[in-house]
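== Fold encoding ==
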Amino acid sequence: MIGIAAIGYYLVVGRPRARRARVHTGLAALAPIMTAATVGNGPLTSTPGTSKLHLRGGYQGFHIEAWSETTDPRPAGSDDPSSPVNQFVVRCVGLNGRQPWNCQRRRVSLNPFAKDQLVFTASLDSESFLAGRLGQFIGLPPPDPELEQRLSGAGLLAEIAGLGHGPHSWLPHVRFVPPIDFTRGSRPPNVSWLECRVEVEHGLVPTAERFQQLLDCVVRLVHINARENPGSG
């Protein structure tokens, strides 16, 4: 019984603590790349209702939040068994932009040997559930039919493709969420942000070199979005 209790304690308490310590150490090692960087467990600036262990600080004049996450990268509602993947998320907060969009690497062919492709959707979610009338109901602006062409022509898809990818589909995944007045004026709109999710193939946190690459890519994406998708930030 003692052995069973010890195993149970390790699985419920010990292993999560060890994982958290590894993530904290990894995030702390990335902090020198940013300015005024801190590592802590608290609400995110981008989504105050969400608290998690994360790194926050400045980079090239932008506010950045970054964290490790092990979740299933597929859209919600998939019928297949859950398949968690180690991911690293970099989010740039408080940006200029009008239309929401998603760009995600995924399988588009029934051929099992076909390569995944980057798929762009002008919606809050990659499956476009929150588009059309539902999007208008929650306060999204009218669709911009030329948005994908402008962003792609400015190099957005090429930048995302340049991030590379691991063995799992659905990553990388980049999305932009603009300020949205969900409450129709009773509360301030949400904080806008651009988020980049990539697979971490070794460990839970990327190397400093990889993190620098992600930061530089996110900043370039922010500038592309500001030029080709202008709006309030």
The two ends are 58 Å apart (CA to CA). The first helix runs from residue 2 to 30. Residues 3 and 9 are 10 Å apart (CA to CA).
